[in-house]
Design a protein that fits this description.
With 327 residues, this protein is α/β, with parallel strands linked by helices. The chain is 51% helix and 15% strand. It has an 8-stranded mixed sheet, sandwiched between helices. The chain is elongated, with a radius of gyration of 25 Å. The protein binds uridine-5'-diphosphate and magnesium ion.
Length: 327
């Protein structure tokens, strides 16, 4: 029987935790009863440096029911790192892991189908949103443009898939081999390979609390995703540079002809305009290159991606959870 770990990053989620834990527990009990997962399957919450009572609640949950376990990060490390911390901890004790958000926006009934696909021999099963009826137009528009832009710029992600996915143990071990500090899991998982499949579900509303991804965070997440997965933007800039160089030669020839035929142009406007245009393009180019240099800088530093302060688990898992080299 396969041991399932459900990994859930939590940042200030005290409003949703009681309901999430209740619903997940029911789900787990059902799956255990149906003989789809083993009795020692666990729900693993990762507290990502919450400022509210999240960690306290996780500890209480564990005290009530060993089904719940928890990892406490030393500070807020961001969604992706928190998720990785959970997955990397789970990989040594589970047969299969499912990652999802704490707010139940991902339909937990899709878990059954994911597990079925896993039993059919799939190593990675992506949860894909079939429609976004409940998202606001703005969220839907920005999110969908994000996926399109990502793919256009060479980062292969699964369309409309966030971080709701199943991964087998060997897929997790594969993921562990990717040591990048600039972490964008949904772009890296497809690189792990193996047999994959998708499961469709409808995305619900966050039922309590507010989104931890305001527009500013979403934008930086998009830039992070693109620059950490592909060098296409640099190529685009080089192409743009060539194009502009070509245009400037044409303009040069044109203005020389005008000059020698006696039509000297007052030309101030165009000159100033082009100075600005080129200046702007240069700034953009430098900015893009700067992004990549910054990435290289961080990768060479090889900083830990997460640091675990404490954890709460039953005896069986304690030894594995407590390994100090876990980063
Ligand atoms: N999250 C986290 N660390 C952060 C921000 C978010 O662990 O710094 C978690 C959060 O608790 C939730 C998940 O990441 O479980 C997704 O966040 P949210 O639901 O706010 O994002 P949205 O669904 O609005 O994109
Ligand atoms: Mg959410």
């Amino acid at each position: 029987m396969d041991r399932l770990f459900c990994v859930i990053p939590c940042y200030n989620e005290q409003e949703v935790l009681p309901e999430t834990s209740k619903r997940l527990k029911e789900k787990f009990l059902g799956l255990i009863k149906d003989g789809k997962i083993s009795e020692d399957s666990r729900i693993l919450f990762v507290n990502d440096g919450s400022k509210d009572n999240t960690w306290k609640m996780i500890r209480e949950l564990h005290a009530q029911d060993p089904l719940f376990q928890g990892i406490n990060l030393s500070k807020n490390m961001g969604h992706q790192n928190a998720l990785l911390a959970g997955l990397m901890t789970a990989k040594d004790v589970c047969d299969v892991a499912i990652s999802m958000d704490a707010d139940l926006q991902d339909d937990i009934d899709a878990i059954d189908e994911m597990i079925d696909k896993f039993h059919e021999g799939k190593d990675v099963v992506y949860g894909v949103r079939s429609k976004r009826a409940t998202d606001t137009f703005f969220k839907k528009f920005t999110a969908e443009s994000f996926y399109k832009l990502m793919n256009a710029l060479g980062a292969n992600t699964v369309y409309n898939h966030a971080d709701y996915r199943l991964m087998s143990r060997r897929a997790l071990l594969g993921l562990a081999e990717f040591g990048e500090v600039n972490l964008f899991l949904r772009g890296i998982v497809p690189m792990v390979g193996y047999n994959t499949d998708v499961v469709y579900y409808e995305r619900a509303d966050r039922f309590a609390g507010e989104s931890k991804y305001p527009l500013k965070k979403m934008l930086s997440f998009a830039i992070e995703g693109i620059t950490s997965l592909s060098t296409k933007p640099i190529k685009l800039i080089t192409g743009l540079g060539f194009f502009i160089f070509f245009v400037s030669i044409v303009v040069l020839v044109y203005s020389l002809i005008r000059f020698f035929t006696g039509h000297t142009i007052p030309g101030w406007t165009t000159t100033v305009l082009s100075v600005w245009a080129i200046g702007g393009l240069m700034m953009i180019s430098l900015g893009v290159i700067g992004e990549y240099v910054g990435k290289i800088y961080l990768e060479t530093k090889n900083r830990p991606r997460f640091i675990i302060e404490s954890y709460i688990a039953d005896e069986k898992d304690e030894e594995v959870f407590g390994r100090s080299d876990r980063r």
